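$ ./design --mode recover --in tokens.txt
reading tokens...
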């Protein structure tokens, strides 16, 4: 039998434990558990800290409780509205409007972006019109929508649709036109037809832009809802805010602001979920 001795580098590697083991090794040779705060908890640290500062400011007398009620009073007002059934009715009506306007805005925004992005004729006919709509604030269109469509649900949903559609169009169109031309030429050299080129190269390349547009579009949807629910309505959180301001119910006004904030956080979380699912192929910088 022939014995072969390990090399000097191999013997040194056996004697020296991995860096993590050296850093975490205890007195008895066991690896100590490493405690890390989950990222979801860390993401909520900022809003929770804001609530704590708000409550402490009220308790210490730094904030006028009559004008800025503490979170405990805002929570009590929300519980009263929940018990009476008003909160569910107003929030539910607003959610329906946002869902309808967002769905229409996404469909129209993507359709126009595809027409303008894939065709120079489409770009010439559509892009300037969309840039005009981008430059005009939503609330400036409210009187015109009332004149042409009346005071029903139509102008409310259309106002949200315009806000979402413009954001989707601008970012999706930019994503299509920013696809690397070398990738397109390479796919054509390899024999990819037009449909496969669109499906496998252009649409995946434009997906990050679409998701950015969706994130901005959802924010625009909630902002548009504020103006939309000032159009002769008796339901919705915008109406709840207007009535609370008229009756000087500052706790209800702050409750509506908290509802808008929670809706924004949930919208952001929804888009982040889509990004993890749809952009799993992309290896981008995630911070250090």
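writing sequence...
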């Amino acid at each position: 039998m022939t014995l072969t001795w390990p090399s000097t580098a191999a013997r040194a590697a056996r004697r020296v434990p991995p860096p993590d083991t050296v850093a975490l090794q205890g007195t008895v040779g066991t690896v100590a558990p490493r405690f890390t705060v989950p990222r979801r908890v860390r993401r909520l640290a900022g809003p929770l800290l804001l609530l704590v500062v708000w409550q402490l400011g009220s308790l210490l007398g730094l904030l006028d409780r009559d004008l800025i009620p503490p979170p405990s009073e805002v929570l009590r007002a929300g519980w009263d509205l929940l018990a009476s059934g008003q909160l569910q009715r107003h929030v539910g009506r607003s959610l329906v409007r946002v869902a309808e306007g967002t769905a229409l805005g996404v469909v129209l925004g993507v359709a126009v972006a595809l027409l303008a992005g894939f065709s120079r004729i489409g770009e010439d006919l559509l892009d300037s019109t969309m840039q005009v709509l981008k430059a005009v604030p939503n609330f400036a269109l409210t009187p015109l929508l009332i004149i042409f469509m009346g005071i029903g649900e139509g102008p409310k949903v259309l106002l949200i649709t315009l806000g979402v559609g413009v954001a989707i169009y601008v970012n999706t169109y930019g994503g299509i036109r920013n696809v690397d031309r070398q990738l397109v030429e390479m796919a054509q050299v390899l024999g990819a037809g037009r449909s496969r080129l669109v499906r496998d190269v252009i649409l995946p390349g434009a997906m990050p832009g679409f998701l950015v547009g969706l994130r901005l579009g959802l924010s625009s949807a909630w902002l548009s809802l504020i103006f939309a629910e000032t159009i002769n309505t008796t339901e919705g959180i915008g109406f709840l805010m207007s009535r609370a301001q008229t009756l000087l119910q500052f706790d209800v006004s702050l409750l509506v602001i908290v509802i808008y904030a929670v809706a924004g956080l949930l919208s952001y979380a929804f888009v982040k979920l889509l990004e993890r699912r749809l952009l799993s192929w992309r290896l981008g910088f995630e911070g250090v």
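exit 0
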